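Give me the fold.
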Amino acid sequence: MIANRLRVGVQYTPGPEHDLNDLVAAGQECEAMGYDCFSLPDHLSRREGGHAVALPDPVVLLARLAAETSTIGLGTMTLLDSLRHPAQTVRTAATLQQVTGDRFELGLGAGWLGSDLAALDIGVSDRVKHLERTLALFRHAWPSALTTTSATSRPQEEQGAAEQAVVANAVGVRAPRLVVAAGGPRMLRLAARAADVVALTVPTRHRHDGTRPTSVSVATQIDTARRARPAGQPTPVFHLQIRDLPQAAPVAQDADWWTLGGSPAQAAEALRARCAAGIGYLSVCSQDLRVLERLASRVLPLLDENRP
């Protein structure tokens, strides 16, 4: 961990001005800075300057990054689940785990971006059911303490074709860290039942009105997920994004937990508040390597100072 008890990664969104060499260089620099994970989003396109701009497939890019890095985790934040068959997603996770040398982190989400959802032409209920199937197959391939029965507890002939396929792909492969993005109560309960990490976000229905996570909303989400965790199992790690890093600190730090600004001391204090609330993993959404270097070298080392 880059700071004691806090995992900190970078969520990097390649723009049309970035080529593959830029992406590789960014991953290498984030590794040198000491970040724990370098993750890529999974959108079919995004709006930029009033036009749709294509985004590359993160799976292909991560395979390239695996060859150009050696220690940093590599992940999806988050894979658009409905875009792929659940068995294919598990197979991809197993392959990337091998290619990266056990550094892959599978982040999954039901999807929220309007252009993605329009292209998929699939309703909310169907998207959630699709994600449930993917999570069930993942845990079938890699049973964990959360799984009530072993993947091999049933004879192979009694398992379905998808179950047999994912188990075959997982043989000899260490389970990737499983991250599930969740905002509303239904998704939080689903994530809590399956994930190693619950990535807290704003519910889809509120994203387009400018709603941002607050100390109160995050505490409510954490409580919902904790209550849904299988009895006797450890609390999942809770993840939060940092989307804005302005020079000035927010007037009300607790009113927008996607923003981290101010002096290094102010930013470190704001991060301590997030840790105290239960956040154990942060992803910094930035392509600005100077900002990322400042955070890594000047803010994160302060986290453990004056800790009781």
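The longest helix spans residues 124-141.
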